[in-house]
Amino acid sequence: MKALPLSLAIGAALLAQPLLRAQDTPAAPEAELPLPDLAKAPESPETPHAAWHTDYQAALARAKEQKKHLLIVFTGSDWIPLCRIYDRDILNQPEFIDSASEHYVLVRMDYPKKTPQPPAVAQQNQLFMRAYRISAFPTLMVTDLEGRPYGVNGYQPVTPANYAKVIGAMRQSATVRDQYFEKAATATGAEKASLLTKGVPNLPGNLSARYYRPQLEEIIAHDPQDETGKVGKCKRLLADVAYSDKMQELESKVEWSEMLTVTDAYIAENGLQGAERQQALLNKASVYQKQGKLADLIRTLLEVVAIDAKTPQAQQAQGALDKLRAKKLQEELSPRR
Predict the structure, then answer these.
(1) Buried-most residue among 49, 214, 269, 286 (CB within 10 A)?
(2) How high is the pLDDT of residue 113?
(3) What is the pLDDT of residues 296-315, one digit of tens each?
(4) Do 24-171 and 254-324 agree at the fold level?
(5) Residue 271 backbone class (left: φ over 0; alpha: ψ -120 to 50; beta: rest)
(6) What are phi and psi of 72, to 5 degrees?
């Protein structure tokens, strides 16, 4: 059976979390194109347009000079067909490049499996993938000059010009964010908390807690009666950060038993149910896999499926169970020597 990567399991758990407020980015205003046929993707990656930077620090320096923000695209160009289609149909098209460059300096971080990269580039890219909790390719993220993300997107079957409009509109969400934060600076109590909840961007997972922790802590401190209805969510986001950071620390130390203890406490203290509970249990399954505890692994995977068989987490667990059964059947049918 193929291992369930703990880092990916945690990343998926974070991406499943609800968000603080509605995104300001509008839906695509023009008709969408048909979904791409992945079988017709380019056989090899295209050479990126000259506007794309691969050195983040150089891109940041240019962005500061030009008073722009950063648009970062994360791709797996030589092993994911959709990434190559994304390049061909949108990212390398002048209609997108020219429009997006009005607001952003463009940065490309690629994660190839076959194509060698300079060590410095590979190290930089791994750092940013961890920092922004990227768990799927392709992903597009826009950030301010402090590195704080305020919008996330991916491939969409639209024209390059239409896609550029959507991404360009994301820049306005940073302006809205800053306006709310400025108003909150002179407000007090629940009013301050309300302004902050409106300003914190709509981000997947616990990215809000990672990059807007001071604002979340102020919401909690200034709204003791939870008049905003967001205090519980803020606490959960901060708890999620603490949990995922602790799990990564323990994984690096190969402290499997402690990882199980921490996960059980995380489930109990936060009253996890549904898909959130399933994802935490998948983290436990990953640990049991690494420990070689087959019975505990199977029991945990069955528990995930029993909660709700229709969720992506359950499908992942069921797929793992099916592989285990196939492996056992193959062993039983193999001739003994």
Answers:
(1) 286
(2) 94
(3) 999 999 999 999 999 999 99
(4) no
(5) left
(6) -115, 130
Mark 280-289 as b/e (b = at least 16 C-beta within 10 Å). bbbbbbbbbb
How far CA 282 is from CA of 77, 291, 301, in Å, comes to 28, 14, 7
Q: Which structure tokens are listed for 230?
A: 């967001």
Alpha helices, DSSP H, located in the chain: 6-15, 56-66, 81-86, 94-100, 119-131, 160-185, 189-199, 207-211, 213-222, 231-252, 256-269, 274-291, 294-307, 312-333
Specify the pLDDT at position 32.
62
Q: For domain 24-171, is the CATH number 3.10.450.50?
A: no
Q: Which of these CATH numbers, 1.10.730, 1.10.10, 1.25.40, 2.60.40, describes 254-324? A: 1.25.40
Q: Which amino acid is at 125?
A: N
Q: In this structure, are residues 257 and 235 in contact, taking their beta carbons and an 8 Å threshold? A: no
Q: What is the length of the chain?
A: 337
pLDDT in tens, 257-274: 999 999 999 999 999 999
- Tens of pLDDT, residue by residue over 43-94, are 888 888 899 999 999 999 999 999 999 999 999 999 999 999 999 999 999 9
Q: With beta carbons less than 8 A apart as the criterion, state whether 99 and 165 touch.
A: yes
According to the model, what pLDDT value does residue 275 have? 93
**Mean pLDDT computed over 229-255:** 94
Kindly indicate the confidence band of residue 337, based on its pLDDT and cuts at 50, 70 and 90.
Answer: low
Sequence-distant (≥ 6) Cβ neighbours of residue 107 within 8 angstroms: 52, 53, 54, 56, 59, 70, 71, 72, 73
- Tokens 């909840």 correspond to 197
Q: What is the pLDDT of residues 140-168, one digit of tens each?
A: 999 999 999 999 999 999 999 999 999 99
Give me the amino acid identity at 235.
Answer: K
Question: Looking at the whole model, is its pTM more than 0.70?
Answer: yes
Distance CA 143, CA 248 (A): 25
Domain ranges of the chain: 24-171, 178-236, 254-324
